[in-house]
Fold this sequence. Notes:
Low-confidence stretches: none
Order of helices and strands: HHHHHH
Largest sheet: none
Number of strands: 0
Number of helices: 6
Shape: globular
Amino acid sequence: MAARQPRFNQALLYDTTPLPSSIPPVDEIGASSAPLLSAAYFIGARCRLFNDDYMKCKTDAYGRGEFECMREGRKVTRCATSVLEDINKNCLDEFRRHWSCLENNNQQLWQCRKHEWKLNGCVFDKLKLEKKIPDAPANETPVHLRKRQIFSHNETGVIT
């Protein structure tokens, strides 16, 4: 048995220092990775300008931007929260089916294309947000729109 006290332990540490009033408060999103992955392209579509502002701030701060860019980061969080709220209000069943599929298939998007197509259609019809993969070749069908998947649970690879 060691005679010295451990340097690190399992206790939770909380920083009780309040943020300055110049930084607007925002609640955490409170979603696990599967719903965030399911909604990621829609969050990117609606929140692109906020994300770009945040990344520019981080780049301009040369790695010291955690505190300086908190205002922009909070805007990104509020925007992402609004997207998730809108999806939950308008497309809850499709959204839940898709992220449950992701949760049950190790977050592999290609395993859940059938549910993804239904979610994409609902979100486009009701929220006018479209899934676009950045920097995808213009002359090819995007991977999420292909009828035949290279990797698939079924033997033919054709999604029905």
